[in-house]
Design a protein that fits this description.
Layout: H1 3-19, H2 21-58, E1 61-65, H3 71-82, E2 87-93, H4 95-106, E3 124-129, H5 135-143, E4 149-153, H6 156-198, H7 200-208, H8 213-257, H9 270-309
Antiparallel strand pairs: 1-3, 1-4, 2-3
Helix pairs in contact: 1-8, 2-6, 2-8, 2-9, 6-8, 6-9, 8-9
Amino acid sequence: MRSRGRGYLTRMGFRNIITNRTMSMASVLVLVSCLMLIGLVFLAAINFNAVFREVSSYNVIRVFLVPGLPDYQRHGLQSRIEGMDNVREVVYVSSEEAFRRMQQSHGDEFRLLDDVDPGFLPPSFEVSPERLGEFDETVMLLETFDPAVDRVMHFQGVAQQLRAVETAFFIVGGAVVTVLLLVSIFIISSTVQATMYSRQQEIKVMKSVGAAPAFIRWPFLVEGMSIGLIGTALAFGVVFLVYLGLAAALEPLLGSLLEGFTVLPFAQQLPILLPLFVGVGLLTGGGGSMLSITRYLKEKVYENSELDET
């Protein structure tokens, strides 16, 4: 395909968008809705993951030790627990540290125990699991890990609830995004197909003079990919504005629930989000176009062969 012919066909593809502006606008709007949901689901997933990690850091497994354990034995036990598969961090809490924490959390109510020896509280390890999905297995291993472990306390219900929320979020978000992607491809395919039917005489002339299939497909591919890029640009702007608004509204709430937590900045997600949007937009637009033009050309070839036989 020569450069002059390619330029003509490219302009024809842009002209098709204007000619079928109603269908093109419908395609762009559906694609914007799809990409907007993809972007918001992605950004929400990133922030949810940060929240889950923050909450999970409080959801530690507390391993109480036998009183009077020698330091060398405690150090060895801590090293062995740190070497376990699903363990992210192990923090030793002495009897004195546990006593100090109780004083801070209870305040004036703790004054009755001011003269009590802190040694009545057993020392412990705070074990932070790496993956909540293996929380139960880690607890079972710790309960029978060593005779120096007196007992194990944990908040298994909290871990299971966090895991259920995370799983449900990804399942629902993934299902909705998949449906919208299919709808986008169908709408873009219908838009391109409407253009082809309006230009079927021109396509017949091109085929009759021996035009290659790539020559015939090019303007419709340009049309579909242009729709994809327009939808990508609009969706990206909408997601940016919506995210900034939600971040401004939710950050004070999340900051009060989780001390020091902030919504992740939008710019930090650009290296992933921008290629994702452009890729989905181009693949959806180009895929819808190729699906439509390929089916159209096959149908016409089939019809022509039937006519030749008769």
